[in-house]
Amino acid sequence: MNLNATLIGELVAFIVFVWFCMRFVWPPLNNAIEARQKIIVDGLAASDRAEKDLELAQEKATAQLKEAKAQAAEIIDVAKKRETRIVEEAAVKAEAEKVRILAAGHTEIETERNRVKEELRKQVAILAIAGAEKILERSIDAAAHSDILDKLVAEL
Amino acid sequence: MAEEVTLSGHIQHHLTNAKMCTTDNGLAFNKACSDSGFWTWHIDTLAWSIGLGVLFLWIFRRAANKATTGVPDKFQCFIEMVIDFVGDNVAKTFQGKSTLIAPLALTIFVWVFLMNLMDLIPVDFLPAFAGFVGENVFGMDSHDVYMKIVPTTDINLTAALAVGVFLLMIAYSIRIKGIGGFVKELTLHPFSTKNKLAMVFLIPCNLLLETIALFAKPFSLALRLFGNLYAGELIFILIGAVGLMQLPLHFVWAVFHILVITLQAFVFMMLTIVYLSMASSDNH
């Protein structure tokens, strides 16, 4: 087991093997591993991001739904209020119309009554004159006593 | 057939590498190379280690070719687990940036693991098969055919790895700290004083200590791996020589060895990273 030329042969073989390994074996394998590690890291990050996005989207959807519900409730509220107002307005208008119509009726009735009263008064005056003429015969001059007659008419 | 096989002869046979050398008559093998000195090649160590290294690179290169950033198949998952494991350890241990450290650590870990794994193949299988082929195909004496299939039990291989790491340590030290910084690191620590005269005496001490510390690293790397695997292999051989009793013993030792071979590969890798990290960090 003395040292001999085998040592030189093995040293050369060793150097060649290491050179070959350094040139053709290690870099492609190591590159493949590192490239795959990068892909995996990116994939994990992407999945994390997607999960966060999903969460965000869900939150957003929930918020939007809530908002929509609130809006709908508000719209219904407004509509109800408006309905009430319309009904109230209509009632007020109707009341006013009623009052107006009643007033017009009253006025008309009053006017008619006044007219009839005047007429009646005039007729009564004529009747009274006629009655008085009949009673007094010609003793009363209509023209001379018209002031008395007018007073009488006014008193009726 | 050859002489009576003794136990020590059997063990000796298992622990001998197949040698190759050049002599005046051309290529020679095994016993003919007993006195060929340094220029002897352990062809079994070379063949198995290079074969396993190529197997490692082929498997990982296939995964690299098929690598997609999409959903990986199970084969790619397995390879990526190994890559991730090594890359993680490098990232945690190595201060600073380098495109070399991670592939270096991967090569050491998987290659050493595969070579250690050969330890779990029953000790007699492949040597016996090699002997059979040697005797029947090449007409050799089967006792003259050696086949040591665990390359990490050969000090030449572990030393080669350690020398490679050691050269890288020197290179990193010089690249990060410059030659001056490296020399300073070797001479001005651990003892230092403001007194110039005292420093003159301290520098040789520092140089001695730091040089020993520097060289201890590759020595410990080479000897730890070699020692563990050589001892493990020796015990496998001994267990293999005790008849039927070897079955439970072998099982227990093999299960324990699954831990040892993985751990030794891991330790070699981690220490390589740590040493290179120390070499490339400026603060002493």
UniProtKB/TrEMBL annotation, chain A:
Keyword Transmembrane helix: yes
Gene name, Swiss-Prot/TrEMBL: atpF
Classification via InterPro entries: ATP_synth_B-like_membr_sf (IPR028987), ATP_synth_b/b'su_bac/chlpt (IPR002146), ATP_synth_F0_bsu_bac (IPR005864), ATP_synthase_B_chain (IPR050059)
Organism: Colwellia ponticola
Superkingdom as given in the UniProt entry: Bacteria
Name recorded for this polypeptide: ATP synthase subunit b
UniProt keyword Transmembrane helix, yes or no: yes
Function (record text): Component of the F(0) channel, it forms part of the peripheral stalk, linking F(1) to F(0). The b'-subunit is a diverged and duplicated form of b found in plants and photosynthetic bacteria.
Any coiled-coil regions, as ranges: 47-78
Membrane-related topology note: Single-pass membrane protein
Organism lineage string: Bacteria, Pseudomonadati, Pseudomonadota, Gammaproteobacteria, Alteromonadales
Subunit structure and binding partners: F-type ATPases have 2 components, F(1) - the catalytic core - and F(0) - the membrane proton channel. F(1) has five subunits: alpha(3), beta(3), gamma(1), delta(1), epsilon(1). F(0) has four main subunits: a(1), b(2) and c(10-14). The alpha and beta chains form an alternating ring which encloses part of the gamma chain. F(1) is attached to F(0) by a central stalk formed by the gamma and epsilon chains, while a peripheral stalk is formed by the delta and b chains.
Cellular compartments per GO CC: endomembrane system; plasma membrane; proton-transporting ATP synthase complex
TrEMBL record, chain B:
Membrane topology according to the record: Multi-pass membrane protein
Claim: Magnesium is one of the keywords in the record: no
Keywords assigned by UniProt, alphabetized: ATP synthesis, Cell membrane, CF(0), Hydrogen ion transport, Ion transport, Membrane, Transmembrane, Transmembrane helix, Transport
GO cellular component, one term: proton-transporting ATP synthase complex
Transmembrane segments: 39-60, 100-118, 155-176, 197-216, 222-244, 251-276
Subcellular localization, as worded in the UniProt entry: Cell membrane; Membrane
Molecular function (Gene Ontology), one example: proton-transporting ATP synthase activity, rotational mechanism
Principal subcellular localization: membrane
InterPro entries for this protein: ATP_syn_F0_a_bact/chloroplast, ATP_synth_F0_asu, ATP_synth_F0_asu_AS, F0_ATP_A_sf
GO BP field: proton motive force-driven plasma membrane ATP synthesis
Signal peptide residue numbers: none
A Pfam family recorded for this sequence: ATP-synt_A
Function: Key component of the proton channel; it plays a direct role in the translocation of protons across the membrane.
Family: Belongs to the ATPase A chain family.
PANTHER family membership: ATP SYNTHASE SUBUNIT A, CHLOROPLASTIC
Name this protein carries in UniProt: ATP synthase subunit a
Annotated organism of origin: Colwellia ponticola
Gene that specifies this protein: atpB
